[in-house]
Fold these 4 entries.
Entry 1:
Amino acid sequence: MGIKGLQWFVTNICPDACRVVDLRQMAEKHHINHPNGPPVIVVDAMCCVKYWYTPESWVCGGQWLEYLVNLENFIKAFMAAGIKLVFYFDGVVEDKKRDKWIERRLQNNKEIATIFQFIKTHRKQPERGNITIPSALPTFTRYALKLLGQKTVCTLQEADFEVAAYGLQHNCMGILGQDSDYLIYDTCPYFSIEKLRLDRLVTVMYSREDLCHSLGLSLTHLPLFACLLGNDVVPENFLEDFWRKCLATSPHRNNSYSRRINTLLAVANYISKVPCSYDSLKHLEEMLPLGSDKTLLYKGVGSYLLPGQQSPWIPPSFTNCQMFCLQEQTDMCQDKEIFQVAKEQHIQSENYAIFSILSSGEIECSNSLEDECDTEIPGQALIYRPARQHIYSILLESGKGGAYPLVKEWFVYFGNPLQQPELIQPVQPFIPGGTPNLKTLWFAKGPDVEKQRYSTFLACFHLQEGMEELQALEAPVAAFCCLLAYLMMQVSSLSVEDLNAFLALVLCLKGKSAAQLECLQVENIDWDIQTGGEDFSVLLSKEHMCTDHPDDPTHYWKWMKMDKKKRYTFMKKFIKTSSVFQKWCWEGSHQKFIMSLEKSITECCETILQFRFGTVLFGAFYKNVFVKTTSLS
């Protein structure tokens, strides 16, 4: 998460450490020095998501096709320069960073409340500076990058360490991100994603050497410097008295600087006079009020040591392998084979949330764009909880008496103070013949097993009765119908207009290009624009639960084209006049597509919705959608 104030200091106070570089030229030089392979840049993807996600109507969310084009253009720009990219994603929230994660989520809640207040007052979205990234976007980004043929890694710990280690071990050309921790690690060069000009492949390279020269330090001082400023290992509240003492004797105090910047300079001045030795570190630990753990500095400095590196601040016997390798917690999963498969797929970005549940029984979900004042639509965390409970029951073995271990959920929704995890009881779905075990679902073969996987998948949505109809649909259409039926069951306030608008997307997005969707204009925003981003995440976790070799993720990615900006426009127009729907559905070359889908979707939705709601709702749905569209023929 970086060192507070350090990135700003480098950019504004230490301009010599900010070098504008041409990545094409650097790639050519790197290839001369390392001719055995293409130049590689390792990308801290979590730092880059906001750079990639640039829809004009961002408050509507879900412009997936446009986002995919942005990713594709990003990759092509580097490929044209002969540069290979390797993308790293955070795979866990470590315990030591949970408090900071909670603090940020609660702050995000306040920011989202401000966004909705702005929308209600001005009937438009705030400026892009207030953008809120959809909570599931990083998950979808992993699958998009894999779809585009890129190497994608999901970490077993916070990403910055693994990114820095990969860059060092593979002689990478550099790291692309925006995290001041990359100034502390002794690894390959650090490039700014915020300053990147993709059209020219020009950005800023932050120089550790020039930073050290400005501060009067050496590279070996940087890990201790980071710890004494406060980081993920050494809390800032332990350092206040130390900072005051440093400020009192610092020759670099400047009234035009903030207290944080003056503190940064004062700490650097103090460290520059301390001999680089383990004895010096022990003296510092004795001097600082580090609470019950007097080895925090030792651990903090060690956390910046990459494999094969040593530091004069700590003994040569110190090993950082425990920092690099996950301490496998297999209490939740007794089957080593299942655990290993889940771990490998986690690293390769081939499953969603499964490994977290099997390894630690803990899972989290960040903020969604949800209005705390809207009491009609519950938060997505609550909407999808019944589905998650079924997933947990299939993943986790029941103990004596049929009791399951509880799962810790850190899900953000209004009303949840996040003071502690919610303990969620797994619930078995209703499956005739009983719930199959994971070994059967993941490793067994044959048509009967395929049928069992599909029925288990549908059981988590309470959609077993629609199995025959869903199997007759294309996978993307079936996935969409599953989500739509589940939402209609869980959210009583959803109306026929909502249902119509969702189905209109199924019928009308076929063949639409990203450019066409981007040109779609949104009317004044004066009512509900919230829809959780977790829906396809839950779908993915169910798919990964039911097999160790999940179907082509493009089954779901195809429906990432479900542009919510277009859904919002559809819903507005449905309320005004149904004739607009006819125009949308039948413009261009959509007629054949609509006719081919009409019968299968109708039969599927009829079975599910009639079973759950009776004929009244389905009759309204059929009359408002299919009767009106077919009459045009």
Note: The mean pLDDT is 81.
Entry 2:
Amino acid sequence: MAQGKYSRVDGKKSYCSTTTIVVVLGFCLVGVWMFMSSSAVPSQTSDLPVAKESKPKDSAKVSSQFEDNSGDLASDDTVKDSGNQESTNSEESNTNGNDDSSSNEETSNSEETSSNSESNENEKNNESNETEKNNESNSESNETEKNNESNSESNETEKNNESNSESNETETKEEKVNKDEDTKTGLSGATESEILKETTAQNGAFSTQAAESATEKKAQNIYNWKTCNTTAGADYIPCLDNLEAIRHLHGRSHFEHRERHCPDESPTCLVPLPVGYKTPIKWPRSREQIWYSNVPHTKLAAVKGHQNWVKVDGEYLSFPGGGTQFKNGALHYIDFIQESHPDIAWGKRTRVILDVGCGVASFGGYLFERDVIAMSFAPKDEHEAQVQFALERGIPAISAVMGTQRLPFPSKIFDVVHCARCRVPWHMEGGKLLLELNRMLRPGGYFVWSATPVYQNKTEDVEIWEAMKKLTKAMCWELVGINNDKLNQVGAAIYRKPTNNECYENRQQNEPPLCESKDDPDAVWKVQLEACMHRVPVDESARGSKWPETWPQRLESPPYWLKTSEVGVYGKAAPEDFTSDYEHWKRVVSKSYLTGLGIDWSSVRNVMDMRSIYGGFAAAMRDLKVWVMNVAPLDSPDTLPIIYERGLFGIYHDWCESFSTYPRSYDLLHADHLFSDVKKRCKLQGLMAEVDRILRPKGKLIVRDNIETIAEVENMAKSMNWNIKLTYNKDKEGLLCVEKSFWRPTEVETVTYAVE
């Protein structure tokens, strides 16, 4: 006999009602829920990374912890206080790199669980009401009870998941407030980005809208930017276009009018953009082709086009790679020099060179093919915009002239000095200008002179050659060879500087004279030229007594003349300080800059480190297709010779004045504790206007400094409508990354001393 679905097998009424079973099961489920809730909530342990993903402005993310070690700090006292943080932060960076992806997954899962939990709560309420109706009618079956039990357990589990999600969010908020927790667990990139959306939020505390609005209004009121109105227009260089100072010069025969004449205070107006300015073409295509609208000058193409300097090609300016002495291409000419004297050994023995009167710097541009970097320079003269062409092409160059003052470089640093028809009267006035080259050339280094006196027999050329022959012999330079380039129909003479003082001591006449012992060859800032020679160092522990290691070994090795008995910039023994600084910047670049700032590094070519110590930042960028101009500020430790020793280059500069470069020269500027130093001596607004002048639109500025200075720079950047990519601070130190916009003020300021 078939049994009813809900009847007893024996046909009798059940002694245990449905209501009783529901009550018993209800107590059981309550017990299960209490047990699962207590075991599901995670304990507050520092081993669990709890992070909440946040997208900063422009979607930039920090992938590594900001390091507060000796490489970041400006003063010795601060270095001592944080001497042990380097290893700690390194461990934190490694932890954060592994936790970043898991943090994102956790955030996503938490949101999904919370959503499901809310949905199932509604289902639970509906099922509960239905169950009460069934209990009242005593018609609910055992199967329905089992279903209710299963649904209740499912809903309780979802409720537990929601509780876990809320617990994790609570832990995240607690970690933001407690800065000590950072050093215990490390921060993932997403957490760093969320903490530091505003520099006013110190130690992870959120700022208020009132405070943010007040700060913004204050910045807008303080920084009333205007566009510069000058004769030079979009090409304005304050220290080279001071027309009033130039008008008052007593003479120009020594190119005084091409030297620096800075105004008493740096201008605070912003240089206009050329009409139709475009984002520059990327390297390496830029070496051969640039936008005409970015450097709208055609005079050089008309004058030097037949020598393959530059040609106008529709909306482009094209550079065939030629020059006055190498019309058929720079690479052939570079190989010709090496073949003439193999000991030059491009990219091995010879790494850093000085190119005098560089033109559009094609020589330096193609030396990259031989792993050589050239400090190229030429004056801002009738060869219209030649240095600007070089920089727009992605080739290092500065505007400078060999006039009455020493060039802003240390002594004994260049492996080779090159002059190809550079129009410098080397033989005049006792050889004063050639003696300046002698000061900068390493003992054992080479001077390559490719000019008409070497290979032509015109009367003037013969006279110059005889004068140069006499002068170089008196300077004890050895003529190692004269060779002719048949393809280009030019010749080059190659000289070598002595490595000891024997020749100087055996000269019959002390002409040119040896410099007095009190004359410091490394003192160069606004120091007048002297027609004398400095002795070659002979002490084996002295800089210049030995040739550096071959490239690239010299990049990573402390110079032989750094002594362990000397204290480095950051308080350690000098060689250890050098190595520690390099390791620090390798971590910062690889773990933070390359991946955490939202920078497209394929669009970065021209880079400046505005306050370089050992060149560690530039060294860490070696594998990128960039070059770095290392700047040694006048009031910083004089470590520029160390930078050259490791196969990098740089220049001395006073940041209370404008830099000797054209506007829109650099893709990225890096300032490590520079702004806080400069504002002690001059106005920070003037420096920020200079940064705006140097930097290209869409270019990036990275600032590492104390949090007060970071806040000032950020406010100025906002007032210029720059994009804030990232701000981050910890222990009173901060990191800021901003991007320059195309914005220019509508209000104009006439710079009276720069107008004809």
Note: The two ends are 118 Å apart (CA to CA).
Entry 3:
Amino acid sequence: MSDVMSKSLGFAMEYIKGKTQPIDHPYTIHELLSAVSKNSNLKDNEILVLSKFLQQMKDHFNMCPLIRQRQSLVTLTYCCQMPAIKSVVKLLHDVAAVVITFVERAKSVKDKRLGYLALTSLADICDNEIVYLAVNTVVKDVASKSPAVITIALNCMVHIVSIDIIPVLLPIAEKRLSHSDGNVRAKSVMALHRMYLVGPEFVHSPQRHLKQALSDKDPEVMATVLPYVYDVLKINPELRSSFAPKLVHILKQVVKNRLPMYMSRQGVPAPWVQINIMKILLICVDNLKENDSLANILTEILNRGQSLNNTASYSVVAECTHLISRLYDAKHEAFQTVLGCMGCFLHSKHPNLLLVGLQLLSELTTVDSTCCVRYQDIIINSLSHPDMTVKKQTLNLIRVLTNSTNYKAICSHMIEQLKETSNDKYFTSNFSMQIASTAEKFSTEESWLLATLHSVLTSGGENVCPEACNKLQVCLSKASKSCIENEVNLCLKLLETSLSSVHLKLVVWVLGEYADYLVCENPNETVALICQCCLITFKNNKSLTADQRDVVIFGILNCVTKISAKIGNFDHEVMDMLTKLLKHTQSIMVHQKLKEFEVLLEKPNILKKIFTEEFEFDKNLSFLEDFISSSSVVAPEEQCESIGDSPQPLLKYEAYGHLQHGMVKTPEALLASVLPETAQPKVTGFLSKKAPEKGEAPRKWGQSGYLGVKEDPRPENSLSNALFGKSTSQTLNEALLNLSAVGNKNNDNDICDIMNDMLMTSQTTTDSGAAFDDK
């Protein structure tokens, strides 16, 4: 006996005994919303209410009357759109089984539709378990005799398709392509399209489905298959040539109004069918360039779109423009027709239509850059449009519109618009860079270019692109002397106004770099003017960061240093002025720069020599010869030996130390720790690291290191010879006796390390090795 039957019998017995309890019905949608809004903490309350609702559906759904069940399904569909539904996913699996049971028992089409709607909403949230539970129900309903039930089941199939169940559902959907009802065939196409998107490797020969649907007698089936055709041809270029003529023929029938009237919108015959077909033809451009009938069809679409001022006609004309810009050149009749249609977009007062027109005109300029000249006034006026998106799109057209005859008028107009948009950081940065690049590209007058760049810096404020300043610096480096003099005088006048930090930094750089062109009796006045302008800038622009302030002050210190070197000395009043600026910075670099300048003020000759005299650099660095000759690390080039032809390896990978308690100890250090001073050998040569005396021959770099003489300087009978590879039997025995004499419990480890090293480096006879083993 099932759980539902046992619960029903239990309630029946309680009813007979008079002990019935009221059933806790699931919430209706009004009850759900009122329960959620009771608590101020909506997120936690949503989870509690949803959990209670789903628990009610799980326990009491089948015992509720049919009307209450329908209300519960509507509420469940609404709940699946709530953000908190993901927190109660575990309860949805139990509820899904209840919903599937309702769909199987539903007797009317309305109940089937309502059940499948709730099931589809659950499938979008939960994993594949619900899909597996619903497969049998969907397959059973697709095999129904009622077209309405089949349509509802196929619609649900579109939502629950996964890669695991495609082999089960694919033959069923293909079979329904031959159904007598047009709606069933249309839904079958949608299901096949979804399966192709999820698992294209399972859908073999999709062109068979496409050709069958495109030739269907029902125009709705043909309209439904167009997105499927687009996705297939986009991945399979080899199929485009076979479908392009068929699509052109269908587009011709649509334009001639051969489709039913109910598919028309706002006087345009089947606008979405036209748009979808032209999207497909856009990827089949290579197969359409020799098709003459397509040009006539597109021209007819454009002529009709000019007469109808509505959104449907605008959409069709926009898609037609994309296709013409890819198919034909500027001399073609269709291109000239579409260029005339741009007026219906550009003259519109609606910002969306104006934006679309600017985008389409930008696309047409890729074919012919002069096509936008007729709309020059509209494009320039669009820079003052209140919509920021329209302004950004207009900038792309300005680049194409500007030429050598109108660049001055366009730049002046753009500078005026820059003043109004200086608050937008990113747009102002791009806009200022656009103006500077345009002026630099077309200008032939240095004075006009410099004045324009200064206007850009003044109008843009703090958001000006730094590259605009770089362009002015490059222009000055190529300018004549008279132009530089005018620029320096202009910068002095600009110091009397309020400048942005970016502009002030550039002005200060010009005054410092070209201080030779300054004409002033008292340089203190110039510095005072710079410091005053800096303080005004900091006062007006309180949003400046500490780094921006540091850069400005650092530039001022550089400028004052250069002016002092090129013009003359400053009084100590200048230091007081500069010290006031340090209140606005905490940078150590700026304070250090001021201290350096203070020291240089006391030595004006050195400062002037640094900036005025030219230094000759010694490429051979001969001033280092005395240092190199007394150094034990580096040798002069003329004293180096030629070791390139040496057969011996240049790098020697020999152990020279021992790891002792985390430290590397050389053999000398180990000997010093275990032998008395009288027993320690005196090591000379490269181990002593002693500089050569005056009477000695100059040392040379060789294969054995930096040596004063070529022969080995080490004594023959020394303990170091036993350690470093030139040991004899007598020397080795003496070393072993010395080590044995000083050995004790405290230094056993060190002595063992030395003996191991002697074993590895000694080249003695078998008797010596035996003596070593005995010791």
Note: The two ends are 96 Å apart (CA to CA).
Entry 4:
Amino acid sequence: MTTLTSSSFTSTLNLGFRIRPNRTDFTRFRHYDRRNYGYYDNNSCVLSSRDVLSKSTVRIAGLVDNKGFIGGFECYASGNDGGGGNREDGDTANESNLTEVDSDKPVVPPGVMSSGQPTFSPDGLTYNNFQVDSFKLMELLGPEKVDPVDVKLIKDKLFGYSTFWVTKEEPFGDFGEGILFLGNLRGNREDVFAKLQSQLAEIMGDKYNLFMVEEPNSENPDPRGGPRVSFGMLRKEVSEPGPTTLWQYVIAVLLFVLTIGSSVELGIASQINRLPPEIVKYFTDPDAIEPPDMQLLYPFVEPALPLAYGVLGVQLFHEVGHFLAAFPKNVKLSIPFFIPNITLGSFGAITQFKSILPDRKTKVDISLAGPFAGAALSLSMFAVGLLLSLKPEAAADMVQVPSMLFQGSLLLGLISRATLGYTALHGATVSIHPLVIAGWCGLTTSAFNMLPIGCLDGGRVVQGAFGKDALVGFGLTTYLLLGLGVLGGPLSLPWGLYVLICQRSPEKPCLNDVTEVGTWRRTAVTVAIFLVVLILLPVWDELAEELGIGLVTTF
């Protein structure tokens, strides 16, 4: 990315800058390029080549390579005719990043692009003011690319017969800002990668990050086993995630406050059999228009707090699991952005990696730790709640819920049926302890977050355990099941929309994105995905009637 020094941009559409701070007249510039030619008037912008330059020396903002002039900006005072004269020779030597270019013959430009008028290049392309300024702005604001001089130095000193023989180079990164070295591996991939990382640090310091990735579009595997590998290089500031900003902290706090509110609302809704009739009618009758007095809800806030604490505790425990797994591996995580939901209390939280992950094992371990921690606490609450539901002395703490709610999960419905019995679940309502609801909501939220899609915890573990191609297949299947309502029941649509908006993109590659994670990690991921399906799979009426889960009414 070219950086223009000693300049201050005054607007996007008219990029003017002063060449002398003590002058009162503003200066404008001409933009030159080998492929096009033309010139500026006082209010114009034309792509131009060196042939347009007059025989006199012209000031160009430095864009020069080893072959000569590439392109740049010609600075001239707005009060002068011709746009190039009345310049003091001494100024050029005192300003950085400026190059003098002489031209032998002045050439009449074939096209002029004044304000609002297009310019036609010799290639037949048409540019207007906005397009030219947009091109330059994209160049200035885009990610900084790898220096070609560094590429040559690294290619000569880093790679070789004993490590990796480079045969081809391709763009690397989201915007092609890096370099991907393709070639032939000359040793064990882990040993070669460690050696290359050490040598790169000696040569370039901490300027670049080196990635070992699978060779794109490779037809044959590596003769030593496994996929063929390539090595990508990106600038450190481009490849590493940025720090959490102040606004992100503010948004995270606001979302957490809203999540507290949605959790309390869930606790109040669980007392539906005790709420005033006008409140119940307003929230359940679609024809109800006039809102009731909300002060009637105040007496029910305090009884709702234990359930709210349980829901929030599960989500916080989930995030603590992530942080505990990341700390010993020196991986930084962002502050969690909790997602409020009135049905479950919370949809979980978005937690970003703020460090480049060293390998796929680290990705799997950190991503699994959160759902496992949250699910463990949720399962404990669910089990204790079911046991308390059997004790008569806990009747004062019980809440009445429709028995059909137990048809929302095959696994949890079967556990409830085995604990509470056929008679309890075959009535219109079931008396249960609030911990059952907290545990149920926590397990459902953990299962949703373990779905193998995008940047969810489940997507990260599948990408780390089985690769990015496997994640694509798992993701398409999951989207189809969510769209059909096979997984998640009535929550499938809002959850699918949330993922499409916020979490659809897969996680970025690790530094070592090739080395396998091992058999036991893959087994753990497979078992987890299987349990997720059992939790989110609803029970249809025929099966519910046969299993005795809920009261099925046939019309």
Note: DSSP finds 17 helices and 17 strands in the chain.
